[in-house]
Amino acid sequence: MRRLALLTLAALALGAGTPAKPDGSTITISVTNLRNADGVVRACMTGAEQSFPKCRGVKGAHAAKVDAREGTITMTFTGVKPGRYAIALLHDENSNGKADRALGMMPKEGFGFSRDAPVRMGPPAFSDAVFEVNGDYRLMAIKMRYML
User: Fold this and answer.
1) Can you give the pTM of this predicted structure?
2) Which of 32, 66, 130, 148 is the most exposed place for a label (fewest CB within 10 A)?
């Protein structure tokens, strides 16, 4: 009995039985208002103001892709370091990896941004979509918008 008590104390002292802390925050996005189940939804989360809304080749950026589904989907980023980030979404309905446009400028596919940042003549400014990550779990909703 004494040996069992000593083993239990040793295990507790070494941290056994306690969940390991994740290497950064977890950010979960509920993407609402998807009009169909065509293609995929791509998400880009970056802290690089000068490259927003793009992620490709951006150091420290997070990207995710899930199959589209009419209505609502969930996407999760893990291991997010503390800082300021903005998220851009694309409902890539034809899965070609890019945002298709009509007449050279009007988005043909759905899009969305953190904080539901307003869209005027192009994507919103980083400052309109930015949010803080400080080590906690974060859940947010982003509404997918369609122009056509």
Assistant:
1) 0.83
2) 148
Handedness of CA 111, 115, 116, 119 (dihedral sign): negative
The domain at 20-143 falls in which architecture? Answer: Sandwich (2.60)
Each domain of the chain, given as residue ranges in start order, spans: 20-143
At residue 133, the 3 state secondary structure works out as strand
SS3 5: helix
The span from the CA of 101 to the CA of 107, in Å, is 4
What string of DSSP letters covers 38-79? Answer: -SEEEEEEE--GGGTT--TT-TT-EEEEEE--SEEEEEEEEE
- Greater confidence (17 vs 47) lies with 47
Hey, what are 74's tokens? Answer: 């969930």
* The pLDDT value given to residue 122: 87
Look at residue 1 and tell me whether its pLDDT is greater than 60. no
pLDDT digits (tens, 9 = 90+) for 109-123: 999 999 999 998 889
Q: What angle do CA 129, 130, 132 make, to 5 degrees?
A: 145
Compute the distance between CA of residue 56 and CA of residue 65 in angstroms, rounded to an integer: 13
Query: What value does the mean pLDDT of the chain take?
Result: 86
Q: At residue 83, what is the residue type?
A: G
